Amino acid sequence: MNRPARISFVSLGCPKALVDSERIITRLRAEGYELSRDHAGADLAIVNTCGFLDSAQAESLAAIGSAMAENGKVIVTGCMGAEPEKITSVHPGVLAVTGPQQYESVLDAVHRAAPPQHDPYADLIPPEGVKLTPRHYAYLKISEGCNNRCTFCIIPKLRGDLVSRPAADVLREAEKLVAAGVKELLVISQDTSAYGVDLKYATSSWKGREVRAKFLDLAEELGGLGVWVRLHYVYPYPHVDAVIPLMADGKVLPYLDVPFQHASPDLLRRMRRPAAQEKTLERIRAWRKICPSLTIRSTFIVGFPGETEADFSMLLDWLDEAELDRVGCFRYEPVAGAAANDLGAPVPDAIKDERWHRFMQRQQAISRKRLKRKIGNRERVIIDEVGPGPGLDPGIAKGRSKADAPQIDGAVHVASHRPLRVGEIATVKIERADDYDLHGTAVGYA
Ligand code: SF4
C-alpha cells in the first residue's frame, strides 16, 4: 500500500468515551492514518463501545455487526472490551478487542492490521489534537475510574478505581485547547468533586506555581483561562460549597451537574450513592443564595429495586422543593454484573413506566416555570449552529446560554440582524420560552 491507510471510526457512549476516541484518533492522525466516513472502502474499522446498560451493549454489538458487514476488518475497544467474550461470541471474526483507555493496545492492533505509512511533512496535526466535538467546545477529562460502588453501576468494574491526572497536565491540555479556539471547556470524569483524592491532592508545577490536584483549585485555575468552564458529574460532598462563590464571581459557569439519582434516604442507601447523607435541599437553597443564577442539572432513576410508593412520593416532593432546572430520568435497568440485581424486590415494568411518566410530568412543569423566568433577560449565548439547516430557518441560529450544556440541555434560538458565526458568543434578549428552549434576538455581538 503506498497511500496512507484509511480507518473508519464509530464512537458510542458517554463524553468520557468520546474523549478516549479523540485520543485514539489524535494518535492515528499523528502516525499518518487517514479517517474515512464510511466503513466500505476503509482499510479497517474501529468501534469504541459502551457497556453501561444492556441497551447500550446491544447498540454496540449492532455497530460492530455493521462494521463487519461493510468492512470485515474490525477492532473493538471501549467499555464493552472489558468483557471480550460478549463480543467474540456474537462476532467471532473481529481482529482485536481491547478495554477502555487501552490506547496502546488499540494502536498495536491497528499497526498489525494496517501498518503505518508515515509522512512527517504531510501528517501534521493541529497541536490540540483532533476534536470530535465542534471546534468551539471540548471535553476535558480530569480523571479515570471511580472509587464509589453504586450498586446499579458496573463502571468501577470496567474502568477501575479513581486515577486523577496531575493538575498541571490538565491545565496544559486546557490551555492548548483554548489557544486552538475552544471557547467552552466541559470538565468531565466519573466523580468530578473527588478529583485528586487518589493523588492525596499532590501539587504539580504550572506557570511557575504549584497547583494542588483538588477540585476547587483546579476550578479556580481553569476559571482563569478566560473561557466558559462547565462542571459535570459533581457529587454534593461538603467541599463543593466552596466552588459556588467562583460561580457567583463569573470565574466558572453558574452550572452544576449533580447526579442526585433519588431523594429517599433508604433508596440512596440501597444504591450506595456517594454523599447521600448530605442535606441536599438545604445545600441547594444555600447555593442559590450565594449564586442566584445557578442552574442545577441532575439525573434520577425510578423503579430501583425496593422503591416503594412512599419512596417515590418522597422523590416527587423533593423535586417540588428543589426546583431543579434540567432533569433527566431513567427507568431502572438491571445491568448484568451490577450488585443491585441481588437486592431483590424488583419493581414491575408497568409501575416503572407509570412512575417515570408521573416524574416527568411533575418536573416538566417545574422546568417550564424556571425557563419562563428568563423572558426579558439578556443572556450570553454561544452559537452552535447557523441556519439554514435541519430544523433551522434562515436567519435563525441555535446556541446555548450558560445554563445549557451541549447535547443534554435545551437551546436558545436566536434571530439576528447580522449573520452569526459558529463559536461566537452573542448577547441575546430572551423573548419567549417553550418547554425546553428559549427564543430571542441578538442585541450585542462582543
Ligand atoms: S459514582 Fe457511582 S454511578 Fe458514577 S461511576 Fe462511580 S460507581 Fe458508577
CATH homology-level superfamily of the largest domain:
tm_1862 like domain
At the first level of CATH, the class of the largest domain is Alpha Beta
Tell me the CATH architecture of the largest domain. Alpha-Beta Horseshoe
Global mean pLDDT: 90
Note poorly predicted spans.
118-126
Shape: globular
Largest sheet: 5 strands, parallel
| Intertermini distance | 50 Å
Portion in helices? 25-40%
User: By helix and strand content, what is the structural category?
Assistant: alpha/beta
Number of helix segments? 12
Bound molecules: iron/sulfur cluster
Strand numbers in spatial order across the main sheet: 2-1-3-4-5
Rg over alpha carbons: 23 Å
Q: Please name the CATH topology of the largest domain.
A: pyruvate-formate lyase- activating enzyme
Written account of the structure:
- With 446 residues, this protein is of the alpha/beta class.
- The chain has 12 helices and 20 strands.
- 31% of the residues lie in helices and 22% in strands.
- Strand 3, helix 2 and strand 4 (74-78) form a beta-alpha-beta unit.
- It is globular, with a radius of gyration of 23 Å.
- The N and C termini lie far apart (50 Å).
- The relative contact order is 0.08.
- The protein binds iron/sulfur cluster.
- Residues 146, 148-150, 153, 155-156, 190-191, 274 line the site of iron/sulfur cluster.
